[in-house]
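2024-03-11 09:14:02 INFO worker-7 job=invfold-0412 stage=load source=structure_tokens
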């Protein structure tokens, strides 16, 4: 079932760059796999979906590698937003977030574009975790070939983009860590210089790993409806096994321009576009009459100085759950990430 209304296409602009994504079913709208079309037949069987076949290590989450040794390398395969409320809407969750994260593998019932690639590498010897993002998978090759951390300096802002590391704590197979700041590039298309930057602060990541360390959560074929093998109403293609939470400041949200709505993310999250939608070209909060009168941006639901709800209300809290699958991260193999 299509999980977005009326074939909606939503351009999304961050720091002045347009990000467009077409509407599709979250789990893959084309029956490109070998098992679709009958009840219970939505578990992919194609070789490209697995590192070691449909019954091998990591098969529960369509892992593209097997995490043996002291490095656990993962790519986020689903990011399900629970806060802010505005980002839960289908045109944001499905047409932007899910579409960008899903790989373009029709045989695996994924019809995304692979342009939003969050990566984690756990070093179980050093007890550290590294987080970052990759360039579009199409610029690298087949997911089973691996990926790499994007490393560059954004020329317009001077912001350095690259992997960051921090210690983690473990309780059984559940690993927890906090990153002071994480800048994630979301690519607009399959071009290395076409991206938008999402700056997040105090990012708490908790992940429960499978026994083989290849999965966080799992691919849920039972949630897919044949013959298209797309998620049923209100369902997602993955079962989450981790959480990913942080905040974005109100000021930063005002640099996010949702073109299809004709307003910035600040306006959308304010809950009162009549009051906060400015008359400037990008209809920002700073361009509104309310800001001109008060010289104040709208209040968020979070305080950056205390990293808690309420308080100074200069930020919005981002709360998500996620699933992830093993993938080989090899920065020496792919020069395209440098």
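2024-03-11 09:14:09 INFO worker-7 stage=emit residues=338
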């Amino acid at each position: 079932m299509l999980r977005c209304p009326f074939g909606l296409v939503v351009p999304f602009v961050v720091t002045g760059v347009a990000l467009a994504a077409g509407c599709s079913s979250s789990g893959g709208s084309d029956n490109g796999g070998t098992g679709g079309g009958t009840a219970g037949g939505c578990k992919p069987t194609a070789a490209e979906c697995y590192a070691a076949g449909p019954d091998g290590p990591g098969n529960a989450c369509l892992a593209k590698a097997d995490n043996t040794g002291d490095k656990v390398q993962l790519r986020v395969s689903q990011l399900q937003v629970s806060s802010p409320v505005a980002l839960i809407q289908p045109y944001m969750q499905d047409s932007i977030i899910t579409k960008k994260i899903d790989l373009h593998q029709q045989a695996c019932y994924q019809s995304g574009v692979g342009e939003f690639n969050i990566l984690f590498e756990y070093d179980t010897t050093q007890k550290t975790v590294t987080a970052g993002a990759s360039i579009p998978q199409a610029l690298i090759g087949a997911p089973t070939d691996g990926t790499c951390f994007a490393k560059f300096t954004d020329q317009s802002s001077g912001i350095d983009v690259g992997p960051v590391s921090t210690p983690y704590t473990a309780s059984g197979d559940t690993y927890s860590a906090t990153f002071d700041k994480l800048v994630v590039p979301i690519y607009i298309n399959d071009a290395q210089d076409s991206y938008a930057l999402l700056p997040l602060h105090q990012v708490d990541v908790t992940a429960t790993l499978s026994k083989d360390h290849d999965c966080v959560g799992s691919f849920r074929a039972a949630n897919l409806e044949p013959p298209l093998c797309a998620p049923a109403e209100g369902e997602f293609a993955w079962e989450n096994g981790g959480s990913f939470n942080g905040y974005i400041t109100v000021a930063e949200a005002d640099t996010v321009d949702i073109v299809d709505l004709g307003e910035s993310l600040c306006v959308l999250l304010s809950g009162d576009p009549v009051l906060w939608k400015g008359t400037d070209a990008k209809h920002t909060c700073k361009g509104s009459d309310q800001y001109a009168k008060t010289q104040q941006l709208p209040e968020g639901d979070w305080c950056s100085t205390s990293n808690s709800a309420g308080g100074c209300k200069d930020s919005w809290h981002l709360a998500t759950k996620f699933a992830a699958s093993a993938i080989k991260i090899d920065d020496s193999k792919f020069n395209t990430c440098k």
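2024-03-11 09:14:09 INFO worker-7 stage=report msg="Residues 1-39 have pLDDT under 50 and may be disordered."
2024-03-11 09:14:10 INFO worker-7 job finished
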